Amino acid sequence: MSDDNVQQVPSDEADKRQLELAEAEGEAYQRSLEYMVNEVAHTGAKKAVGDYIIGIAQEEAEGMYRPNASGELVWQAPGEENCHLEVAVCDGDDKRFVPGLSVKATLTSESGERIGPFEVPFIWHPGLLHYGTNVKIPGSGKYDVTVHIAPAPFARHDKTNGKRYGEAVEVVFEKVDIEAGQE
């Protein structure tokens, strides 16, 4: 968290009760994130950086519904992709998910081969809102996972608490055990 955004305090936009409810929402999101990272995904981790808590989770590449040119949802199975990377970006204070960000990731193998940077767009998931994408990697092994988040493009309410997410952040998760495959 940045120095001038250490803790949310009541203001003209949010009273004490609203902030308590936001914190409860963040606590619930963190429980879902912990479950994804520790129980569902092959591997995962979390780190605090800047105004955020950033979590990653890795699974085999998976299919998902995507809108086609006419807006109709069509199931799209992974092609050559063999890795699904998920990124959760949370507010460092109340721990809620932060939507609307530009997230990029780069995977670097132990031999130094780089995959990316690639966009990690928002994905709706029934258990955990997150950013995620399928990518093709050379195979299973240890990878450094670098996550870059651009400054947030959206407006923020609140003169007291709203000056946050204004700086780009980057975090590296070192030697992450990545398993290649498809669901």
CATH topology name, in short, is Immunoglobulin-like
Based on the structure given, which CATH architecture is correct?
Sandwich
Helical run tally:
1
Lateral strand order in the biggest sheet: 1-2-5-9-8
Protein traits:
14% helix; signal; Metal-bd_Tp34-typ; four-stranded antiparallel sheet; five-stranded antiparallel sheet; mainly beta; Immunoglobulin-like; single chain; disordered N terminus; 183 residues
General description of the model:
This is Fe2+ transport protein. Belongs to the UPF0423 family. It comes from Devosia pacifica. This protein is mainly β and 183 residues long. Helix content is 14%, strand content 39%. It is built from one helix and eleven strands. The strands form three sheets. Strands 1-2-5-9-8 form a five-stranded antiparallel sheet, with helices on one face. A four-stranded antiparallel sheet has the order 7-6-10-11, with no helix packed on it. Strands 3-4 form a two-stranded antiparallel ribbon. The chain is globular and about 50 Å long. Residues 1-6 have low confidence and may be disordered.
Topology at a glance:
Layout: H1 16-40, E1 43-49, E2 52-59, E3 64-67, E4 73-76, E5 83-91, E6 103-109, E7 114-119, E8 122-123, E9 130-135, E10 141-149, E11 169-178
Antiparallel strand pairs: 1-2, 2-5, 3-4, 5-9, 6-7, 6-10, 8-9, 10-11
